[in-house]
Amino acid sequence: MSVKGPQQVLELAKVSRTFGQGATAVAALRDVDLTIAAGEFVAVMGPSGSGKSSLLALAGGLDRPTSGGVFVESTPLAGLGLNELARLRRRAVGYVFQDFNLVPTLTAAENVALPLELDGTAARKAGRQALDALRQVGIPELADRFMDQMSGGQQQRVAIARAIVGQRRLILADEPTGALDSTTGHGVMEVLRARADAGAAVMLVTHEARHAAWADRVVFLRDGRIVDQAAAMHDPTFLLTQAGL
Amino acid sequence: MSIRHSLLALLQDQPRYGYQLRVEFENRTGSTWPLNIGQVYTTLDRLERDGLVAREGDDGGGHVVYSITAEGASEVQNWFAAPVERNNPPRNELAIKLALAVTLPGVDVQAIIQAQRVASIRALQDYTKARRDTAANQRTADTAWLLVLDSLIFQTEAEVRWLDLCEARMVQQAQSAGPGAVRKTSNGVTEDAAPLTTETRR
Hints:
Strand order of the largest sheet of chain B: 1-3-2
Mean pLDDT of chain B: 81
Helix content of chain B: 55-70%
Structural class of chain B: mainly alpha
Strand content of chain A: 25-35%
CATH topology of the domain at 8-100 and 169-242 in chain A: Rossmann fold
Structural class of chain A: alpha/beta
Domain ABC transporter (chain A): 10-245
Strand content of chain B: 5-15%
Largest interface: A-B, 40 and 39 residues
GO molecular function, one term (chain A): ATP binding
Shape of chain B: elongated
Number of strands of chain B: 3
Order of helices and strands of chain A: EEEHEEHEHHHEHEHEEH
Largest sheet of chain B: 3 strands, antiparallel
Low-confidence stretches of chain A: 236-245
Mean pLDDT of chain A: 87
Radius of gyration of chain B: 24 Å
GO cellular component, one term (chain A): plasma membrane
Number of strands of chain A: 10
Shape of chain A: globular
CATH architecture of the domain at 8-100 and 169-242 in chain A: 3-Layer(aba) Sandwich
CATH superfamily of the domain at 8-100 and 169-242 in chain A: P-loop containing nucleotide triphosphate hydrolases
Number of helices of chain B: 7
Keywords (chain A): ATP-binding, Nucleotide-binding, Transport
Oligomer: heterodimer
Pfam families (chain A): ABC_tran
Strand order of the largest sheet of chain A: 6-7-8-3-9-10
């Protein structure tokens, strides 16, 4: 069990999640320990039904564990009331979903600014931050477009901009490249990687090995348990040395 | 891999001596397939014997410089024009290992698959990281190395997808073997009944 510190953005401690009761109870997650530090990009892989999405829902406070604790920046989510939880989610946590979840009647910039405005940020300031987030995902010129004027890849970039706006420290992504072609998928990984390199903690749920490979650490889930982890070499020059460069 | 054609192709670019050919080859392929200098000289001798290259003489520094002949140039053209021949089928230690594992009693095939998956993903992480770092440098000389890395990334990804498929097939076999052998996932749902392609795993 790792030590909690300011570096630890997300910590799941002995987390279990059971659905139903008695004979029909199903354990989606069993005794999962997982921490993600600032600047770390972790990918979660596993077959359907292995508990990937449950893990993500718990990490973002969208669901509560049956036992065990979830900590975001050392704050135990169990101790928060619904309003406090919603506030934390708006301020510190960004989500990227497979189906984007964008509001069609708002422009790209308005969609991105939405969580900030809901949190009480003044419209002008929220607009500035939204534009900055759109710049980070490479589409500032699309700020005034509506969703039906954008391609799937562009909409996904808007969704990512909304997830990172206001410098969120924890970014949770559930199969964010699902509907995209491989070039656009690559672009999504570049943005997530850049956020991690800038200090955010990133958790990506995916079944695509080539996307998981962008992560610092790949966690394998099976039957609700972490069965393996694979970490990239921290010194990429190793590969080059090995290759004789 | 055809060292013969690779060296010829490099000589078509400009006359070079043995050591230069080796360095040039390794630079352009990211040193993924290191060349032995002895191989380079033996190959040059044969190319000369076959009339595909000719000695130009000494470069002044004691190196024998080779240049390509007209026959050599047409050989290179043919090489580039023809698709690479596939060994039939290529030997694949992993496929052989798994084929034996599934047919022998007492072998934990799922453990083999998982151990390989972790190793393959780790390799994929390293290739992806190397690709990212190389792409960030944006030197023109890196283009060839990037292509080699892409090739390694695609191959490794295919390996992982194939491992997923192997595992799904095994689960399916266990299911058809009888209800007692059915493997259930944590949520009580049996694994996808027809997980024959990785797409169905979404």
